[in-house]
């Protein structure tokens, strides 16, 4: 078989994307396959959220969820005849129901948009590290449970973003997530 054999139509063909020998790569043949965009975002790697923004967003979310419950509990306490023997009343019960409902709402928002109310105020968003998409409710819930890992070794996991190159907590590493800054606009 020779390369000039007219009866062999496959003789001089090269596989797609591999340059023939002796042809430099600048003639349209890529040297390496194109790499996917980092975090699935156009324009490369987005700016990762620093620790202060993350703490501020978490504190605001906690205040939104637990603040009204405690305020309503204090209303019950103030209305009691004897504060020493007061038991949880109707206002505190309403506060507990509010806290549970708001906690699930925050998880839903974080899973579907990447932003809880606190994250939206602070201009940050939770994303999958692999492709930049939002997590969904189930994975957002799993990530909240994984925050137990951040608390176990003397709360070291909560401080880990201070020196980690990807600014991730232990829960972020386990769940494959990153917290990025969102464009202000």
From TrEMBL:
<protein>
    <submittedName>
        <fullName>RDD family protein</fullName>
    </submittedName>
</protein>
<dbReference type="InterPro" id="IPR010432">
    <property type="entry name" value="RDD"/>
</dbReference>
<feature type="region of interest" description="Disordered">
    <location>
        <begin position="1"/>
        <end position="41"/>
    </location>
</feature>
<dbReference type="InterPro" id="IPR051791">
    <property type="entry name" value="Pra-immunoreactive"/>
</dbReference>
<feature type="transmembrane region" description="Helical">
    <location>
        <begin position="59"/>
        <end position="78"/>
    </location>
</feature>
<keyword id="KW-0472">Membrane</keyword>
<feature type="transmembrane region" description="Helical">
    <location>
        <begin position="90"/>
        <end position="108"/>
    </location>
</feature>
<feature type="domain" description="RDD">
    <location>
        <begin position="49"/>
        <end position="176"/>
    </location>
</feature>
<keyword id="KW-1133">Transmembrane helix</keyword>
<keyword id="KW-0812">Transmembrane</keyword>
<keyword id="KW-1003">Cell membrane</keyword>
<dbReference type="Pfam" id="PF06271">
    <property type="entry name" value="RDD"/>
</dbReference>
């Amino acid at each position: 078989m020779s390369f000039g054999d007219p009866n062999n139509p496959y003789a001089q063909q090269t596989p797609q994307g591999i340059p023939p020998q002796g042809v430099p790569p600048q003639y349209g043949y890529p040297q390496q396959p194109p790499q996917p965009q980092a975090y699935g975002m156009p324009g490369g790697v987005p700016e990762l959220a620093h620790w202060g923004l993350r703490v501020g967003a978490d504190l605001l979310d906690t205040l939104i969820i637990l603040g009204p419950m405690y305020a309503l509990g204090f209303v019950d306490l103030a209305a009691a005849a004897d504060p020493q023997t007061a038991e949880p009343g109707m206002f505190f019960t309403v506060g507990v129901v509010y806290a549970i409902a708001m906690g699930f709402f925050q998880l839903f928002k974080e899973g579907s948009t990447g932003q809880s109310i606190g994250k939206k105020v602070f201009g940050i968003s939770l994303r999958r590290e692999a492709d930049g998409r939002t997590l969904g409710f189930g994975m957002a819930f799993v990530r909240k449970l994984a925050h137990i890992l951040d608390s176990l070794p003397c709360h070291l996991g909560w401080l880990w973003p201070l020196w980690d190159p990807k600014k991730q907590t232990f829960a972020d590493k386990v769940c494959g997530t990153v917290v990025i800054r969102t464009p202000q606009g």
